[in-house]
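Q: Structure tokens for this one, please.
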Amino acid sequence: MKKGSGLIALGLAAWAYWKYKMTPQQKENVKSKVSEAGKNIWEKVPQNIKDTVAPQKPQENI
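A: Here is the predicted structure, written as tokens:
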């Protein structure tokens, strides 16, 4: 089996577990852990990369 096929199978298994086996409380715990991990990673990203990746706000002409 190729690496990509294994990752697809793993993703489908994780999705099925999420959809059919997890309780709402378990889902909320996973969501909060993933959100916290994302915030921690984003804090470590250098500011110049954040500026490049973040959506640009339109400037208002007065």
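A few notes: The helical segments are 3-20, 24-44, 47-53. The mean pLDDT is 87.
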